[in-house]
Amino acid sequence: MSVGEKLLGEEDVVGELRSGMTIxxxxxxxxxxxxxxxxxxxxxxxxxxxxLSHGGPDLGLLCAAGKVRKVIYAFATLDTIPLEPHFxxxxxxxxxxxxxxxxxxxxxxxxxxxxxxxxxxxxxxxGSDLVRDNPSLRTVTSPxxxxxxxxAMPAFRLDAALCHLxxxxxxxNAMFLGPDLYWDDLMLQAAPTGGRFISTExxxxxxxxxSEGCLHQLRISRMMVDGVVAAPNGAHFTxxxxxxxxxxxxxxxxxxxxxxPEAWDAFRAEWLDxxxxxxxxxxxxx
Amino acid sequence: MSTGTTGTGVEISRAEVCIVAMAxxxxxxxxxxxxxxxxxxxxxxxxxxxxFEPLLCCTDGEARLIADDVTFPGPESPGGLxxxxxxxxxxxNPYRSMFDWVWSGxxxxxxxxxxxxxxxxxxxxxxxxxxxxxxxLLGYRGAPGNTLNCTTSYWVPKHGPRxxxxxxxxxxxxxxxxxxxxxxxxxxxxxxxxxxVSNLGVFDFATPDHRMRLRSLHPGVTVDEVxxxxxxxxxxxxxxxESRLPTPDELELIREVLDPTNLRSTEVPG
Lengths: 286, 270
Known about the structure:
heterodimer, A: alpha/beta, Glutaconate Coenzyme A-transferase, three-stranded antiparallel β-sheet, 11 helices, 12 strands, B: alpha/beta, nine-stranded mixed β-sheet, two-stranded antiparallel sheet, 8 helices, globular
């Protein structure tokens, strides 16, 4: 590889992760999730993870496979299926602990980490039961004349961030082509150097990036990225607009596998206990 | 079965009364983001903009503010909801931009509620003990931040005693008693839970201690029916007016432009 190239495979990313880590996963609900890396984690012996996510099937799969100790989240949904069934099961059975947040607090926790300040002040959360249910939250008094009491949202302490982008060059300059970047850029900025990984639909030469979309979609810089995985269809079965939509039939089968341990075992044997190449081959021919 | 008729004898459905009631919550809001979530609230927001609140901004449910009154989107598909096709886009509004509107107060949100109490403390996170719930629902989502920062109303399609409860299991959206305790002239100075619209009537908090009050009854609904479907003691004025019926123009907008396939009747029958 030439200078600054960061191409690697899903298994290499997993090799950089450790049990017990706190990992942020990009995308939103069942949209543009780094599913090929999630599937590699499912095949690994990693365990005891804390997962921060605008939760979708990434969260559900990791919970169902027993990889998760704690979830930091504001919601979990499959979009066309309003509630994430595997996440529900994990919460209702007491299999995982959690730190609930408001979506805006997730934003502030990431921004604080990215800017290297201990917290950011906000009104969000005051008066609600978040203060009861999330012991990491504190209040802070404004040092100015107003003396207002605000909520202090602490910076997240991430060990890694995983995101899926539509296009990237080999050095990690990447872009989203769909309607929303979600929090991908902030997650990558909030994670420490060495732990920031993206997968991408297509690796293109740097000179081609500007013509893949518009300038303003080029929002991920190589300064935010330590490794790039070429993963065509890597967000399957979540939506990856405009490259492809959600595989609704597959998602339904996934959701149905939350019905019983037997159903989950069958789904896992059929779709998860196989290599990414075999998975993609099977998806293409089904 | 209709729940009312106009002066000219046109039958009006309960869903159509609910849409008008939902539109009315935005009256006076001016040039802000009307952000109703759910079918009936979205139709209400679009109706308000098409009639008496023309400056409202509306989202397409994804990352755009749209200027035209397109019909309620169908199932998400590539080239469908996620594309700008057929929409008059007036602003790019990714999820993160929503906080700019919420935290600056330029938004009126309509949320759902799995549970709501007399002060409008709302829960849609979990039923039972939060630490290991009997039923895990959506999560806190944006409810704590919404209620403390921007105007909030609620929509409940099935009014019943398990929704209108004495005490919610988890407070996701902050209610009037908690906001008052924080200080309506201090940390909670941007708080306003305005109205609750259900399939039975409209409710507000225009009482000395901001307890929920029956504001109007949808045609065909009795006070007794509402009281029986509410687990807490509701403030019921001596005279309860009937919810406003759609004008002929509003009815045409609802039926011909906003919801020509009558999706509204799937959420509120009758």
